[in-house]
Amino acid sequence: MRALIQRVSKASVKVDGKIIGEINKGLVVLLGVNNNDNNDTAGFLANKIINLRIFEDESGKFNLSAMDLGAEILAISQFTLYADCRRGRRPGFTEAAHPDISEPLYNQFIQLLKTSGLKVETGQFGAHMLVEIHNDGPVTIMLDSDEKR
Q: 124 catalytic, yes or no?
């Protein structure tokens, strides 16, 4: 799995012009699932994200996590994180898992985030979404579960 994490002051996601997910201060997590991912991968990334210290303390240092602050999370499925642009001009997506695999793992990831007690909002799997992100900092971090293996 790949997770692109953005620290935000607020964010929302719309489908067909209607807001379906909205948060205030917290994290937007764009999540891509690949063919080698499983429930353990989802657990690893969910735990890493909620405990990642990317919020500033009173000294301006990255010492606080989403859990420390009770931050909110907006999680969006995004298969394009597995785009392969090495050849040609059109990205390939063979590393991105088929929806039969990725949707259950995305839902598992969401459930794991929710067990933290944090407010978790989501996009709609497979839908065309308009995501509004107010990146705070800006702070943007990429996590890849392959680094765990």
A: no
Task: Convert the pLDDT of each residue in 4-27 to its tens digit.
Answer: 999 999 999 999 999 999 999 999
Active site residue 80: yes
User: What Å distances lie between residue 9 and 49, 54, 114, CA to CA?
Assistant: 17, 13, 20
CATH number, domain containing residue 68: 3.50.80.10
78 is catalytic: yes
**Residue tagged active-site, from 6, 41, 44, 78:** 78
Number of domains in the chain: 1
Amino acid at 80: T
Q: Which of 6, 44, 55, 79 is catalytic?
A: 79
Structural domain boundaries, residue 141: 2-147
Side-chain half-sphere CA neighbours of 124 within 13 A: 12
